[in-house]
Amino acid sequence: MKNTEVQPKSLTYCAFLRGVNVEGTTMKMSDVSEVFRKAGVENVTPVLASGNIIFSTIKPLDRLKFDLEEAMSATFGYEAYLFIRDEEFLRNLIDRNPFDDHPDFQVYAFVSAPMVDVTLMDLFRKSENAENEEAKIIDDTFYWRVPKGMTLKTEFGKVLGNKRLKKDFTSRNMNTFRKILKKM
């Protein structure tokens, strides 16, 4: 008799880790990848050294997120936060970017918990902005355009390190999102 049980299909995701290789929290992506493998995911591929890990799994994401944060915290001795998103999310994030590429600007998108885009926009509106610094929300994603070299120097840029919000979002520039999507 043939086994007709349907095996769950493994899906591909990217985990965006918050606070990797900044402010004294340093780790090798090969070590991070090993933590992911031990958590039972497959096809683990780091992208750049800023905490982007592509992987495949059949596991439920809520439980996996919790397990990975616990394992990362225990392994590297810091309070780990990560956000797991699929290829469709990344494709939409890139396609809906409201800002054109320009050599004088960096464009960032924020991967966040629900409703954090509204909080970020409120903080942006209350801050003194650099010349031509802009922010927009498109489909629950906060996008920020800032002059090159000013990312951590603008008043809003200092929000990126806000301890109160560290579990709620992480950001990447659009070039990083494009590199990740190419590898997915």
Short summary of the structure?
The protein is of the alpha+beta class and 184 residues long. It is built from five helices and eight strands; from the N terminus they run E-H-E-E-H-E-H-E-H-E-E-E-H.
Instruction: State Rg.
Output: 18 Å
CATH overall fold name of the largest domain? Alpha-Beta Plaits
Q: Tell me the CATH architecture of the largest domain.
A: 2-Layer Sandwich
The counted number of beta strands is: 8
The biggest beta sheet is recorded as: 4 strands, antiparallel
The 3D shape can be described as globular
Helix content: 25-40%
Q: How big a fraction of the residues is strand? A: 25-35%
Strand order of the largest sheet: 2-3-1-4
Number of helices: 5
Strand-pairing-aware structural class: alpha+beta
Distance between the termini: 37 Å
How many structural units, i.e. domains? 2
Q: Can you tell me the CATH class of the largest domain?
A: Alpha Beta
Which regions are unreliable across 5 or more consecutive residues at pLDDT < 50?
none
Q: Mean of the pLDDT scores?
A: 90
Would you list the SSEs in sequence order as H and E? Answer: EHEEHEHEHEEEH
Describe this structure in words.
This protein has 184 residues and is of the alpha+beta class. It folds into 2 domains: 11-88, SP0830-like domains (Alpha-Beta Plaits), CATH 3.30.70.1280; 96-174, Alpha-Beta Plaits (2-Layer Sandwich), CATH 3.30.70. Helices cover 30% and strands 26% of the residues. The protein contains 5 helices and 8 strands, in the order βαββαβαβαβββα. It has helices at residues 29-38, 61-76, 87-95, 116-126, 174-183, and strands at residues 11-17, 42-46, 52-57, 82-86, 105-112, 134-138, 141-147, 169-173. The protein has a 4-stranded antiparallel β-sheet. The longest helix has 16 residues, at 61-76. The protein is globular. The mean pLDDT is 90.
